[in-house]
């Protein structure tokens, strides 16, 4: 593997990407950013990959952007290098992604989890945007995605005080889809990913694109967008297979195109 800070494994049509900087609790330095983004874009180009699971360690999904790396930077360093801009490319990946979060998901770690499509948490997960305690603010979309996920009340409190949320609060607030016991997290995430990867890949991509559109546009435009994609799926063999399998009372075998 060309990567030093992440581990990559393939399990059938599912790819597992594990953050692997244990000594720094998976702090997201520029190398981690570049490797996660490059690896995910690679997987995105591979039609044999139907879903990507992103995870960390039991103790930390990621304890944030790398504070030691950022500490000496000045405004022009940050501006001219467009610090963190590569993370935006993760949000443009078309293959569905699942974040499996155990332990700390703070600052950039919480933002990275929110860049994924499905967010599963272990009962040990801790979420927060504590940047304010370091004299900075979120920089990978946290103030925007957390607010859209949990609403202004909680997002504002978390961003202004640095308070963290446990898994139960995160689920109640709508940040994560489900909480599972720590020992079952990875298995459950892989099972969810395997389910997604068994669907038609282009149709799953369109479903993802359609849900994501809800964050970008008005209801009328969003429904129009959905309707166009809904019509478009009738151009796939997988639509015929899925509906035929139902009428024949059997499981569909999608060809993913
Ligand atoms: C760099 C980090 C780090 C980080 C942990 N480490 N988080 N290094 N950047 N974000 C390092 C520690 O320095 C330490 O290295 C090692 O990982 C283990 O961490 P400890 O603190 O010893 O572990 P523990 O006592 O268990 O505490 C865990 C923790 C704490 C509560 C998660 O590490 C912590 O508060 N981390 C920072 C969390 C945070 O503020 N995240 C937001 C970052 S800002 P050594 O070498 O000392 O053993 C951010 C901003 C995004 O994400 C955009 C803003 C511009």
UniProtKB/TrEMBL annotation:
Membrane-spanning segments: none
Family: Belongs to the enoyl-CoA hydratase/isomerase family.
Keyword set includes Transit peptide: no
Entries under SUPFAM superfamilies matching the protein: ClpP/crotonase
Record-linked NCBIfam families: PRK05862.1 (NF004517)
The UniProt record lists the keyword Aminoacyl-tRNA synthetase: no
Listed name of the protein: Probable enoyl-CoA hydratase echA8
GO molecular function, one term: enoyl-CoA hydratase activity
Annotated function: Could possibly oxidize fatty acids using specific components.
Gene3D superfamilies in alphabetical order: 2-enoyl-CoA Hydratase, Chain A, domain 1, Lyase 2-enoyl-coa Hydratase, Chain A, domain 2
InterPro entries, A to Z: ClpP/crotonase-like_dom_sf, Enoyl-CoA_hyd/isom_CS, Enoyl-CoA_hydra/iso, Enoyl-CoA_hydra_C
Catalytic activity annotation: a 4-saturated-(3S)-3-hydroxyacyl-CoA = a (3E)-enoyl-CoA + H2O; a (3S)-3-hydroxyacyl-CoA = a (2E)-enoyl-CoA + H2O
Top-level taxonomic group: Bacteria
GO biological process terms, semicolon-separated: fatty acid beta-oxidation
Matching PANTHER family: ENOYL-COA HYDRATASE, MITOCHONDRIAL (PTHR11941:SF54), ENOYL-COA HYDRATASE-RELATED (PTHR11941)
Keyword field: Fatty acid metabolism, Lipid metabolism, Lyase
EC top class named in words: lyase
CDD domains: crotonase-like (cd06558)
The EC number(s) this enzyme carries: 4.2.1.17
């Amino acid at each position: 593997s060309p990567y030093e800070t992440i581990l990559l494994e393939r399990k059938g049509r599912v790819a597992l990407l594990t953050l692997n900087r244990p000594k720094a609790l998976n702090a997201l330095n520029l190398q981690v950013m570049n490797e996660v983004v490059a690896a995910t874009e690679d997987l995105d180009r591979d039609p044999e990959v139907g879903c990507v699971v992103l995870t960390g360690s039991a103790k930390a999904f990621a304890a944030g952007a790398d504070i030691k790396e950022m500490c000496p930077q000045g405004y022009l360093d940050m501006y001219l290098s467009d610090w963190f801009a590569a993370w935006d490319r993760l949000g443009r990946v078309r293959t569905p992604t699942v974040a499996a979060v155990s332990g700390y998901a703070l600052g950039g770690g919480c933002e990275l989890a929110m860049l994924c499509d499905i967010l599963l948490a272990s009962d040990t997960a801790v979420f927060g945007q504590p940047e304010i305690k370091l004299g900075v603010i979120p920089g990978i979309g946290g103030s925007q995605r957390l607010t859209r996920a949990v609403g202004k009340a909680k997002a504002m409190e978390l961003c202004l005080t640095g308070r963290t949320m446990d898994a139960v609060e995160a689920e109640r607030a709508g940040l994560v889809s489900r909480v599972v016991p720590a020992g079952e997290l990875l298995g459950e995430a892989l099972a969810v990913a395997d389910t997604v990867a068994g669907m038609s890949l282009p149709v799953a991509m369109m479903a993802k694109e359609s849900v994501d559109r809800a964050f970008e546009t008005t209801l009328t435009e969003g429904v129009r967008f959905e309707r166009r994609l809904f019509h478009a799926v009738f151009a796939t063999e997988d639509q015929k297979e899925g509906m035929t399998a139902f009428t024949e009372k059997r499981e569909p075998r999608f060809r993913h195109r």
